[in-house]
Amino acid sequence: xxxxxxxxxxxxxxxxxxxxxxxDTTNPVxxxxxxxxxxxxxxxxxxxxxxxxxxxGKLGIGLDIDLLFTxxxxxxxxxxxxxxxxxxxxxYIRWSERGDTFFAKLGAFSSYSLGPGLVMNDYxxxxxxxMDRQLGVMVGGKLPVMDMxxxxxxxxxxxxxxxxxxxxxxxxxxxxxPLLNGLRLGTTVGYDxxxxxxxxxxxxxxxxxxxxTDDDGIPDVNDFDGDGDGLFTQDNLLEMGFxxxxxxxxxxxxxxxxxxxxxxxxxxxxxxxxxxxxxxxxDLPLVDTKLFKLSHYGELAQIVxxxxxxIFPGFYTQFAIFHLNLEYRxxxxxxxxxxxxxxxxxxxxxxxxxxxxxxxxEYDILIKESLxxxxxxxxxxxGKLRADLFNFMYLEAAYTDMYAEGDEPDTKSLVGTAGINTxxxxxxxxxxxxxxxxxxxxxxxxxxxHVMIQGIIRYELSPGTYLMWQYQERYVDYDNNDKIEGxxxxxxxxxxxxxxxx
Length: 502
What we know:
Distance between the termini: 28 Å
Oligomer: single chain
Structural class: mainly beta
Strand content: 35-45%
Number of strands: 27
Shape: globular
């Protein structure tokens, strides 16, 4: 532990040597960081965070080194267990920006979309940050053939299981035909190698702690004879107070000791379950001036081995401070728009308590694809409005209202963002709140299953020093009764402290 603390102090000291020029945003090297507390699950840690950055032209590099201290003064071991933990201290490396001749980024992606959004929309690989870190990769660029643009993506280079890609062309780019020379055709693909990879380490522990092989009401983790055969393992007997000599004598007698119990393992029985989503789209600019933009677009997508969905017509307009999308959508049975969405890392595999499974009850392991079985044909509207108020406040709301056929339930979604990022309010660096409630029958309550609320506030204490508060709350309906009942079904991550940047 002392060695790790020493490394942290040295990092802080060495980084300050490169940071010559407090508050100088033109300085290619800067040091950021903070001290404070963070709550992960039910455990609160003291936090020392270092975020040095290097910026040279189109190149940018940022690190995020967290030292989380327990009440006893030790370091949170889960953050330093294997080589991936060290690689994930890299927050990002970027070269240029999307749309350039060549662009790339390695690191965190808080929001990533491809095309009009039926395949991948607002995907996030930082939902559980900083507890679980992923080093995503985006790379792309242009080719001098029909103004072709290519882009590839994976959510985590150290454990690549989610992939996406997109190719667009402008077939009449050099034709000189008005309107049609701006027509762009695109294809998008999203692929998950195995949805069960979404089970977290905490969820794995929850599953194994609930397994009761002999159905005697005592979970295997607390049962000296988990398989109910009347025999004990060496570890069982040692825990019960037997000496090694006594165990050897019992073993020599035969029939009293077994080397390994035959216990159920739901995780070992899982078979990889992949899923792919394909999309084809077009975009046709109709008006493109400094004061007003208007374009028309459409998209057709399929979740492979499931259903279809399409957008037609779709319109986008930009004028004054407003950006507006309006789409008519139609979905077939077993189709869900934006399958790879903001929640995907949490929803690709999740647990649901089954009280009827054995005397103690167990957890069923479900995947997002299983939800498609209950999705029926629907049609309706999607609208998104964003307003940027003079670099002072931004507001965005997206609403989906899909009407199902017959007596099937309708589906609605509401996503909202509100933020302030201005010097007009003294000392307030930035403030942002996000709200997500997607694919529900009715929006009747702010708190509901699968709702997520996020917030962040930064307040300037002195030049380069900020008081920071960050909050995330997510509601999970573990008992499947369509209600959120208390802290047992509420997952919170809270951090606060002081950030600095030199």
